[in-house]
Specification:
It contains 13 helices and 14 strands. With 526 residues, the chain is of the alpha/beta class. It is globular and about 75 Å long.
């Protein structure tokens, strides 16, 4: 098919540009690197990937989704990861080249080398797994329609002035007019801006009096510093927030990749000596962006573990994708290991689901140790929390979560309380579970408590206020006695059924005296 031949031809051009980019990194040649990055941002992503993601992939899914869905999912993930590398390269470039920051230059080169390695493998896989089957699955009669839609995308990707310039260069090296003209036009990385909603190539606007060096935060490019904690009063120029950095150990709050209709969620990444632990990565909608960001932060390292605090969909519905695309093991509360397979975990990957015993456990991460602590019934019957003793951070999952708070860090506990109290009264199981948890947490050396939703608790005073509040909070079954009655029929009075109440004192006495209500059956399903 001519449409597939055109895509293969574009791959050949991109392969040559990857060679050029790779050769330009050592020694570093600013002009060549700049032009190559600009090429991949515009030609590869807006021009070539648009044909695949807007035209080819949907056609393949509609005709052979059962065969092609997996391969297309992988290709889309790699497109997302490639965009992340290019975006980071554009952010770093001015500081590396104009300001001559050594660390920025080192990071830029590593970022682009990672992009080149990813893209070379991506082109190879796409030729085999997508283009080959396409020629068998798509009928020849569709070829003309595909070419017309490709042409429409091309006309919407470049403005009239650039299009005229490209057409003037004509065919060159056996490439179409757009390809050859792009290479000859000499556009560079610092002079291109893209609006993805209405993509056009145009000169990048600069603030009045601003230099290229001002387009990236020096704080993000500063040399390694002693163990420190990001200030709550300083807004990070990056979307990720460094909670702790000391030597080869880092704890990061990653950007919220969700959308407005979903519950806000924090994703955390702990890195030590190049090994990573990702906490509660969420669902499939946030997976591509989170995967790209995690891969970038790890650089040449690898994701070793993923911790899932409990079974909720905002915690673990992307589990199968993480197991497929990384070599990480997934640590989950033991009571949930057999249930989580219902989220679509492939049977060939189930051996990497590692049950965490009820009493918790320790994991070796790089040169550090991480504790998986029991937090059962807060709020799930099988629930774990992650304690990083190096960073002195306790990651508490849903405990400490809040809804609607606009700050990133809790500095005034009393003012923050209305944002989290309703959630805790309903979602936490009982005051007794909270008191037992508080007793355990008071044995830890803490500077931060980081929940899955809402702002972080920072500082000894705020943490102590939170623990005191938890210790006295009535919640869950403490408040539910009046609801455990048969509801009245529509024709009955609202209070036709008597309400049964039991005092808190009776409940506490039973627990403290060790009275048993029957044999334990927690293992009956396992």
């Amino acid at each position: 098919m001519e449409a597939i031949r055109q895509l293969r031809q574009e791959h050949a051009l991109m392969a040559r540009m990857l060679d050029l980019l790779g050769e330009s990194l050592d020694p570093f040649e600013p002009a060549s690197v700049s032009r190559a990055v600009s090429f991949f941002v515009n030609y590869d992503d807006l021009y070539h990937h648009a044909k695949e993601e807007t035209v080819l992939f949907p056609e393949l899914l509609s005709r052979a989704g059962d065969i092609m869905a997996g391969s297309i999912q992988v290709m889309r993930k790699e497109h997302t990861l490639a965009r992340a590398y290019l975006t980071k390269a554009q952010e770093i470039y001015p500081a590396a080249v104009t300001m001559h920051e050594p660390r920025a230059m080192q990071l830029l080169v590593r970022c682009l080398k990672s992009f080149v390695a990813l893209e070379r493998e991506h082109l190879r896989k796409e030729d085999i797994a997508i283009y080959g089957p396409s020629e068998n699955l798509l009928p020849p009669s569709m070829d003309e329609n595909l070419l017309i839609r490709f042409a429409e995308l091309t006309s919407n990707t470049i403005d009239a002035q650039s299009k005229a310039l490209y057409e003037e260069f004509g065919l060159h090296f056996g490439l179409d007019a757009y390809s050859s003209a792009f290479l000859a036009s000499g556009r560079d990385i610092s002079g291109t801006v893209i609006d993805r909603r209405n993509p056009r190539i145009s000169p990048a606007p600069r603030p009045s009096g601003a230099s290229s060096a001002e387009m990236i935060s020096p704080r993000d490019l500063a040399p390694p510093h002693p163990p420190s904690r990001a200030s709550a009063t300083v807004a990070s120029a990056r979307k990720n927030r460094t909670l702790f950095q000391g030597g080869a150990h880092r704890a990061l709050l990653l950007h919220d990749f969700g959308h407005p209709s979903a519950v806000q969620a924090n994703q955390y990444l702990i890195i030590d000596e190049g090994e990573g632990l990702l906490l509660d990565p969420g669902g499939p909608k946030v997976y591509p962006a989170l995967f790209a960001e995690t891969t970038f932060e790890l650089q040449d390292g690898a994701l070793r573990y993923i911790s899932f605090s409990h079974q909720d969909p905002d915690v673990c519905t992307s589990m199968n994708a993480w197991l497929m695309d990384t070599r990480a093991d997934a640590y989950v509360p033991g009571v949930w290991t057999r249930f989580l397979s219902h989220f679509g975990v492939d049977e060939l990957l189930e051996h990497r689901l590692k049950p965490v015993p009820d009493e918790g456990m320790w994991l070796a991460l790089g040169e550090s140790e991480i504790a998986l602590l029991p937090a059962h019934f807060l709020h799930s019957c099988g629930n774990i929390q992650v304690y990083d003793p190096t960073a002195k951070i306790l990651f508490t999952g849903d405990l400490g979560a809040s809804m609607g708070a606009e700050t990133s860090t809790v500095t005034d506990f009393a003012r923050h309380l209305p944002f989290m109290e309703p959630f805790h009264r309903r979602f936490m199981a009982s005051n007794e579970a909270l008191r037992r948890w508080v007793d355990m947490v008071r044995t830890l050396d803490l500077e931060l408590i980081a929940p899955q939703h809402g702002p972080i608790f920072e500082g000894k005073a705020v943490i102590e206020a939170f623990l005191n509040w938890c210790e006295s909070l009535e919640c869950g079954v403490d408040l539910m006695a009046e609801m455990y009655v048969v509801p009245p029929r529509p024709d009955e009075p609202q209070h036709a059924h008597p309400v049964r109440r039991r005092s808190t004192a009776t409940r506490v006495t039973r627990v403290e005296t060790g009275e048993k209500r029957g044999p334990r059956s927690s293992e009956s399903l396992h």
